Amino acid sequence: MARYDLQAARRTLTAEALQSRPNDIWRYHELLPVRDAENIVSMGEGRTPLVALETLGPAIGLQHLSLKDEGLCPTGTFKARGASASVSKLCEWGVRAIALPTAGNAGGAFACYGARAGLEVHIAMPADAPQGAWKQAVAAGAKVYLIDGPFAHSLKFMREAIARFGWYNASTFNEPWRIEGKKTMGFELFEQFGNTPPDVIIYPTGGGVGVIAIYKAFQELVGLGLLEPGWRCRLIAVQTEGCYRLKAALDADADDTTPWEGDINTIVPGMAGPHYTLGDHVALQAVRSTGGDVAVVNDQEIMAAMRDLGSAEGLFICPEGAATLAAARKLLEAGALGRDERIVLLNTGNGLKYQEFVTETPNDDASAWRLLQSAQ
Ligand SMILES: *Cc1c(COP(=O)(O)O)cnc(C)c1O
Questions:
Q1: 277 in contact with ligand 1, CB cutoff 6 A
Q2: Which end of the chain has fewer CB within 10 Å, C or N?
Q3: Which atom of ligand 1 has the smallest separation from the CA of 205?
């Protein structure tokens, strides 16, 4: 993982300095990988709002429940943060062609940031990925390969194509820069809660990058002298009943995960949990050392939460983000959340990228006119 000269950063990255910094992730540039600002590829990613869930929170019994809405990032998901950091650093290195397999959203983000940087971008994703993901990538001019079968097939295709064509492999955990971009979510939450972390952060987990990144952010804030070494913020990862390798390792008291055996039974792409294990031991450490947990929810609970967030709060969010509300409900029932705690649901993406997940149907033309007739 990337390390920085925190002693040097301490002199310039102060709470006062932050007040006049730009409104994107690069406001924390001392703790991001790019050396020359000329290489930064940015579209105003980050600085997303913390939305108080004033209806749903009290309805389920939580007084201070809020949602950090990453659906407002460029490209519609928090993957923009990782892509901005990664593409910027790769430009600094002089890389010209990048490639990655993706469940969908990383592909869209790297395609868009790659286009902005003038890179050649190759993306492989499962043929049944949400259309919003591959449409975004082809619209950005990327070469997109829709691969039949589970994510493992996209991974295999990309591994062979990269070996054959020599593209830079920008896949999760193959490069350290995505974590760097994503950790800015931790810096922002720290600022949004008045220079302290919230009590609990609930985060939907796929590869585990986000959990690791937020944990790293708080550790770096300690290194900067902005946060007390004894900080408390429970990090809770959410997985689905269809694939929960972190929960399995946690229950087994293991330091690392083992690859998920058998089928991956979930309709939620970002949580289908491709079998990345490279960062899992750090994700487990983040959860354990903060007194957090891994919550497991099912697809029905996720879909219900997605509808509730829409109808009660007006938030049209992705199913991965909705999983955090489903998890909060379960954790509260289990006595793992305090009613007065400041709890953040991390919504990782915009519902507009997941139109297939909306199952309610509108009134058609005939029923619209019938409505008028019935009122006469
Ligand atoms: C990638 C993704 C996730 C999983 O994120 P990790 O940081 O890899 O665990 C969750 N939600 C959405 C919408 C995603 O695109």
A1: no
A2: C
A3: 9
DSSP string, 224-239: TTSS-TT---EEEEEE
CB 157 within 8 A of CB 131: no
What is the Cα–Cα distance from 339 to 281, expressed in whole angstroms? 31
CA pair distance 209, 168, nearest whole angstrom: 20
Half-sphere exposure of 354 (CA within 13 A, CB side): 27
What is the C-alpha separation between 110 and 125, in angstroms, rounded?
Answer: 13
Q: What is the pLDDT of residue 276?
A: 59
Cβ of 33 less than 6 Å from ligand 1: no
CA distance 156 to 56: 43
Q: Is the CB of 76 under 6 A from ligand 1?
A: no
Of ligand 1's listed atoms, the one at least distance from the Cα of 318 is 13
Q: What is the dihedral of CA 325, 330, 333, 335, to 10 degrees?
A: -90
What is the number of the ligand 1 atom nearest to the C-alpha of 209?
Answer: 7
Please tell me the residue having the least CA distance from ligand 1 atom 3: 270
Distance 270 CA to ligand 1 centre (A): 5
| Count of CA atoms in the C-beta half-sphere (13 A) of 126 | 17
pLDDT value of position 263: 81
Atom of ligand 1 nearest to the CA of 208: 9
In the chain, which stretches have pLDDT less than 50?
A: none
What is the distance in A from the centroid of ligand 1 to the CA of 204? 7
Q: What are phi and psi of 215, to 5 degrees?
A: -60, -45
